[in-house]
Amino acid sequence: MASPCPKSPEQSEKNKQYDRQLRLWGDHGQAALENGHICLINATALGTEILKSIVLPGVGAVTIVDDNIVSDEDIGSNFFLESSSKNLNRGSESLRLILELNPAVQGYAVQEATDQILQENPDFFKNFSVVIASSLGEKTIQSLSHHLWEINVPLIFCRSVGFLGSFRIQIKEHPIIESHPDNEQYDLRLDVPFHTLFDYLNSFDIDELDLKDHGHIPWIVILYKAVQKWQISNSNSWPMSRKEKNEIKEIIQQFKRVDDNGMPIYEENFEEALRAVNTSLTPTFLPVKIQELIYNSSAINLTKESSPFWIMCSALRAFVEAEGKGKLPVRGVLPDMTASTDHYVTLQNIYRNQAALDAELVYRKVQEIVAQLHCDNITETEVKLFCRHAHDLHLIKGSCITSEYQFSNTVSSYIARYLEEPDVMMVHYILLRAAEMFRSEHCRAPGEWEPESDIAKLKTCVSKLLTDISCSPFPKDDHIHEMCRYGGAEIHSVSAFLGGCVAHEAIKIVTKQYKPVNNTFIYDGASTNTATFTF
Amino acid sequence: MAAAAVDAQMPEQQRRWHNIRKVLERSGPFCHPDFEPSSEILDFLMDSCKILVVGAGGLGCELLKDLALMGFKKIHIVDMDTIELSNLNRQFLFRKSDIGLSKAKCAVEFVNKRVPGCEAVAHHCAIQDLDEGFYRQFHIIVCGLDSIVARRWLNGMLMTLLQYNDDRSLDQSSVIPLVDGGTEGFKGNARVILPGMSACIECTLDLYPPQKTFPLCTIANTPRLPEHCIEYVKVIQWPKENPWGNATPLDGDDPQHVAWVFEKAQERATKHGITSVTYRLTQGVLKNIIPAVASTNAAIAATCATEVFKLASSCCTNMNNYMVLNMADGVYTYTFSAEKKPDCVACSNTTRILEVEADAVLMDIYEKLKEDQAYLMKNPGITTVINGRNKTLYMPSIKSIEERTRDNLKKKITELGLYNGAEILVADVTTPNTIAIKLKFSDNVDVEMSR
């Protein structure tokens, strides 16, 4: 049958399959993910739960490092093992079952111990986007984190014991251009309108318009006119205080048309203008956070090795100091508002065009820097994206996990501060560390055989840790009892929760979108409580 | 290692469940006061405890896996949907070759095969197709739905199952706990509901974000956003141009239909100088697509599964009673105690009262039932009893009766035989039960005077 639709822009299979997530991180986020290669050390239940939520959305490749043999307990808690997997290599077996989830993903299994790789072939790790490790002993985690810090490969180290879990992200420097804030501030420049905006705003005379047009003026214009009127009697200052803002509201009320009975006529755009008084009269300024970024030494002392992010920050600084007159490039986004199509589209184009002009200037500065440094080219699209998000740029500066094991002064006083509060989530952190220490001393988890007899031994480990950070012992032993009750058990639903979270953070790191946890996350499934700490 | 020696003495089956047996067979300082550790708890989870999973989508697949690995064997799962390509980025029990098959059946087949001993049962039907007797057989119900209406219906069903003692106190043995999870993009929530005892879905309707709608005058006269152009084609152009003939309804799953809307919306956008109408956006608006990703679903489903495990075993106290999760900026959770509404339509077991003006028309009542925060109904059908006889006042869901009763909407309620204190009976898709509501005239004095 002839279809009324001759040319159908049919979506690709891949776009259909990934549709629901492309709406979150876009085609460019997906492309970054597809270029990613994740290394998982130890295919525990937690490990495979993490990989599952990274393989499903279509990461480029995964490598599992695991020299363990599948046990009955593994099969009981790990969905990506089956009865026939018993006594086979755990990494290869779980890889086989995980790859079934998405044929587009490449997978490799390495049947070697992490320590051995670190000694014999440390370069093995250098090409991964993120390394994720679970169930590592104290010694291995220290040598692994030290090595990955040196070669600048991100590491996520995670634990799942009983109802407790944690993960720690180790990343030297992680710049985020698209942080996707929940509440994006508008960038309207009403206090410093650029040329075209100034002309447009002043082309209106609110009192002259007929009623229909009156109801179609964008609130931006109404607000601007109200401030203009206010400034006549306020020596051209800018309304800042609550009192001054109330005066602006008064003026807007006076702008309203009235009916034959002298009652103000309800007009949506004027209501919007009244609501905007409190939120949209903030003067345009350079956010401190962004100022720190563009004056960061990495943005000032560029080298051939400088990343595109720092080169763009440097160009942004040059723009702010010159054409920007102390302000960032115009964002170019207009929120929706009651207005006629004409008014809205005209205003939108005014903002968009200025944003394009500003971004163009930044792009030229980027090109100059690139030519000077002889480094790789940065595309105009990248620079535009950077300028669009210049108000929300975010940089995470991380720390090395070994500092937690060496109890540097900063780490010790940080932990001590939370223990004094007292913060039960920091107590959980200590218990997870103590259980790890117990394992390296006794070659088993506390309570693995029998809970009662291990309580005293675990208490010794806790005391050692608390002495190291100069803290007094815990008044009660209840958390030590609970840890011995767990006996090192890995509970599937606890691992599944952490698995979702860790996969999510790995995706954020690979796509360089959204802010990852900085840098330690603790979960207690028994009390349904979570906390974030920054070591 | 010594641990291996101990393990070797245990039969395989026991070794497999070694992990969860530790928390079930050992006591701890934070256990629920009723908890008595024993090996019988695992036996109960495996052999007796019946769990119903509602929905076999993003959350349902995860729940089924989680519960099977937490020792539950008697799991039922209900879902009326079939598998689509766009499910595969998170619904990990399905493959490309499963497209078009029943979600519930595929999920069950996979998990029963992967986890030996698991006896999951599939129901490929709507939740409304199953009756009280069906729901009554379960110890716990877990819900992973994307529809608020379906959630409310299920909530209402669990209220129907409640029984009250002679002294009007709740018979606790009739309470079937409901664990409910939901996700949207990088955000989600999980909660535990003890029907009749703690806040239910209807008590907290205001926690759901209001549905995004565009006023008709905007889409018709002053479009500004690409979404306005798409809505225009959907609401006005499609019925007018009837492109497939025979009044074929617009199907957001038919790529030809979507492409037609996309092209027309682009035309309209170009005419008005509006940019950024894309195929993806068109589809998103037409199908009201909610973004979804594997990781958020995994975290929320796992939280629900942990709560089911706690409910069934008492090995820990349950969350009290609502957790929100936001994974957009770091990973953030917040758990709070949602409050039970003393006059909740669903769970309060008291007479509902609706205040109306004495000179109101039936339409006022109809609109109130749809817009009042306490009801938020979709198409309420209203009947009453006059002189011992049922009288249908308005019934929007059945076409012939709708036509016959439509005129009543404009009539004054007093003309229809309603009075101050009269009872109306309301039926709606949001509840399996008919709800009795007493009318209370707000300006009673005037009524007296006008007589």
Strand content of chain B: 15-25%
Instruction: Report the radius of gyration of chain A as a whole number of Å.
Output: 29 Å
Overall mean pLDDT of chain A: 95
Number of strands of chain B: 15
Give the biggest sheet of chain A: 8 strands, mixed
Calculate the terminal CA-CA distance of chain A, rounded to whole Å: 66 Å
Span between termini of chain B: 94 Å
Helix content of chain B: 25-40%
Total DSSP E strands of chain A: 10
The Rg value of chain B, from CA coordinates, equals 26 Å
Please, how many domains of chain A? Answer: 4
| CATH architecture identity of the largest domain in chain A | 3-Layer(aba) Sandwich
Number of helices of chain B: 16
Tell me the name of the CATH class of the largest domain in chain A.
Alpha Beta
Number of helices of chain A: 23
The biggest sheet of chain B, with number of strands, parallel, antiparallel or mixed sense and barrel status, is: 8 strands, mixed
CATH homologous group name of the largest domain in chain A: NAD(P)-binding Rossmann-like Domain
Instruction: Give me the side-by-side strand order of the main sheet of chain B.
Output: 3-2-1-4-7-8-9-10
Low-confidence stretches of chain B: 1-5, 446-451
| General shape of chain A | elongated
Low-confidence stretches of chain A: none
Keywords (chain A): Ubl conjugation pathway
InterPro entries (chain A): APP-BP1, ThiF/MoeB/HesA, ThiF_NAD_FAD-bd, Ubiquitin-activating_enz
Family (chain A): Belongs to the ubiquitin-activating E1 family. ULA1 subfamily.
Pfam family, one (chain A): ThiF
